[in-house]
Amino acid sequence: MPANGMPSASGARVAGDDYQWLHAWRYCMEMLYEAITGHHPNPVVAVGVEEPGVGNGDDVVLYRQRPPNTYVQVKYAVDHRAAVSLDYLDQQDVLRKMVQAHITLTAGGDPVEMRLVTNRTIDPADTLLRDRDGRDGRLLPRAAQGGPRSERGQARAEWAAKAKVDEPTLMAFLGQFHLDVAYDLGRLRKDVSLLMTANGLRSDAVAVSLGAGWISQQVIAGRRRLGADDVRSAIMALGLECGSPWTTISIATIKHDQVAHQAAVALDWVDRFSGDTDWTRIAPLPPHTWDDLAADVRSVPDRLGGSKRVLVSGHLRQATGFLVGSELRRVLGYEVGIRQGDQLWTSEANTPPYDLTVSETVVESGPGTAIIVNVAANAAEDAISWITANEVPVSKILTVTPSRGVGPKSVPTAEAANGLAVAIRDLARPHAPAGPLHLFLIGPLGLAVLLGHHWNRLTTTHVYEHLGGQEYTPAFVVRA
């Protein structure tokens, strides 16, 4: 692959426009999904793009059934030399213009929601910005804490001065201001793709680009406000229809899900997991427990309102993915889907025969059987060492490896994933009468969800989560 060159001024401008059009198409997909599902209490009824007369919130406007409408300013950067800080917001005149837009938009008494969306990161040295709430992107409530002489109090005064308003006016703005940072292009494309999948549309890279391109064409033609019927007509014209819509659920344990608000059921456990980064959030932080998380996951089916075709979204690890799949088992009438890279893996895919290589290690520490699903990486030896060192009560350890070998591309398609899940289940069934099963998953998340979905007519199964290195921890107990 050739190395990137420095972007030209026009190249940077085009990239910024593309970023804006993608966000607008994302919001169109949200509007369509809200219309399909009907579960949003205040749905979007139109999406405005570069709307006139709304000030510095005109890039994308979400018109809802009733106030508050959402006014979005989109800022794209070709690099990260300048982080989001008060200096940046002042030098770009973003803060003053957004505060003035807020004053104008709320003059009639209706509340609004102001959003700044950018791929830039936050300057950790900025007093108010570093306290941004990761759940909703707001600077409140922390920005309001402390007296006028405190660090936050002095920062508030400086922000008000830069915005050219008094402090109460600034705080009124911050009460309705949300900051979406580090929203890079790759993540945006994935979010758009997921929403297109949920709407039953094609969601490959070409389809995503077609949707964003349609937004650009509407702006060029002067059509600045788009309704659900406009979007449906575009879908037909672009040939994006693919299947039936899905009901989405969002499970987040690693990082917050930016499209969780569109899910029929959303569980956010990020703040209840240990670790400060996406890579280190693996296990619940006491006093929270795996059993607490399991209880939340097991509540999901009762909250789906009878929906049986379920798309799993969010950011979670294999053990949790297996539990989610097991609560949405095919034997209970569910079909499941999950985005795996650029593909949609679903239980509706064919289940062709899948060749496995199985090796057995005798340990005689108890009546059960350990099964190591050795797919994404050849890490079975570490798992075997942990099982034997911790005297897991099993008589033998079965290491299950695809005959084609291990690696990130060892399961190339949805059909292969579905066939592999069924093959592993069928392999496990003869060992179920001897005692409990102990499951160790070294594979893609999509496989874990599908394996849980097919995991029936077996026995009590203990599912383990990998902590890193050679360490594992018991996570969930699944009755099967």
Write structural notes for this entry:
The protein has 480 residues and is α/β, with parallel strands linked by helices. It has 13 helices and 17 strands. The strands form three sheets. The chain has a six-stranded mixed beta sheet with strand order 5-4-3-2-1-6, with helices on both faces. Strands 12-14-13-15-16-17 form a six-stranded mixed beta sheet, with helices on both faces. Strands 8-7-9-10-11 form a five-stranded mixed beta sheet, with helices on both faces. Helix 1 runs parallel beside helix 6 (185-198), helix 10 (318-327) packs parallel to helix 13 and helix 12 (414-428) crosses helix 13 (445-454). The longest helix has 29 residues, at 9-37. It is globular, with a radius of gyration of 25 Å. The mean pLDDT is 93.
Topology (elements, then pairings):
Elements: H1 9-37, E1 44-49, E2 60-64, E3 69-75, H2 86-91, H3 94-105, E4 112-118, H4 151-163, H5 167-174, E5 177-180, H6 185-198, H7 205-220, E6 225-227, H8 228-238, E7 247-252, E8 265-268, H9 290-298, E9 309-315, H10 318-327, E10 335-340, E11 343-346, E12 356-362, E13 368-374, H11 380-389, E14 394-402, H12 414-428, E15 437-442, H13 445-454, E16 461-468, E17 471-478
Parallel strand pairs: 3-4, 4-5, 7-8, 7-9, 9-10, 13-14, 13-15, 15-16
Antiparallel strand pairs: 1-2, 1-6, 2-3, 10-11, 12-14, 16-17
Helix pairs in contact: 1-6, 1-7, 4-5, 10-13, 12-13
